[in-house]
Amino acid sequence: MQKNENTFVLAGVLFAITALVALLLSLVNNVTAPKISEIEKQEQTLARSAVLRGADDFKEIALTEDISELVQSIHEGAHEGQTVGYCVSVSPAGFGGPINMIVGLNLEGAIEGVKIVSFSETPGLGSKAQDAVFCDQFRNKGKSGLLKVIKSGTAKSDEIVAVSGATVSSKAVTTGVNAAIEAVNGIREGDAE
After folding, report:
1. In terms of Cα–Cα distance, which of 101, 104, 97, 106 is closest to 72?
2. pTM of this structure
């Protein structure tokens, strides 16, 4: 009988420790969750400001059914009450998982900036898709339509040169940018009607 009693005592102690740890984790989460949420909002606002120069106020626009599933949100950027463009949060699938990014487009539909917010691409290869050398290629493109990726050479107005060794990541970022272009074009066409 003594062996069974020891097993029950050990199981009870283990259960008590597990319950205490779960309670502590819950309390820590309740204390830190609002602060984490606030920091994430600030980071998103900073990222929007970085991709849409001149905008200092952002208002979320409701997504319609015809918008790509890659689009997470669209914010109208304004300065002194005047709309200056749109920031589109997109999440295309990269080599290592989703690439969360924000694309800024002006009222003419030209890309003002691309910012990778988070991703899990291969360090040293796919991670180069977040570098300014790659992301700056998108600037002032998109007015004439969707973009395509080329592996090397000189890019035309509708082309982006892939990061060497990271074609999948380069294509994923471009897919996200194209989803943003289509979403903003839909908004612009709706405004023209």
Report:
1. 101
2. 0.78
Total tally of structural domains belonging to the chain:
1
Compute the C-alpha angle 184/70/129, nearest 5°: 95
For residue 83, CA distances in Å to 26, 93, 103, 124, 188 come to 42, 30, 16, 38, 12
Quote the CA–CA distance of 83 and 28 in Å, as a whole number: 41
Write out pLDDT tens, residues 110-164. Answer: 999 999 888 876 676 667 777 888 899 999 998 888 999 998 888 888 999 998 8
Q: Whose CA is closest to 46, among 109, 38, 150?
A: 38
Confidence of residue 4 (pLDDT cuts 50, 70, 90): low
Domain annotation covers residue 73 = yes
DSSP-H helix ranges across 52-166: 132-135
Report residue 109: phi and psi, to 5°: 90, 5
SS3 state of residue 121: coil
Is residue 129, in this structure, part of any structural domain at all?
Answer: yes
The answer to whether residue 64 sits within a structural domain is: yes
The structure tokens 């200092």 sit at 56
**What is the domain extent for residue 135?**
49-192
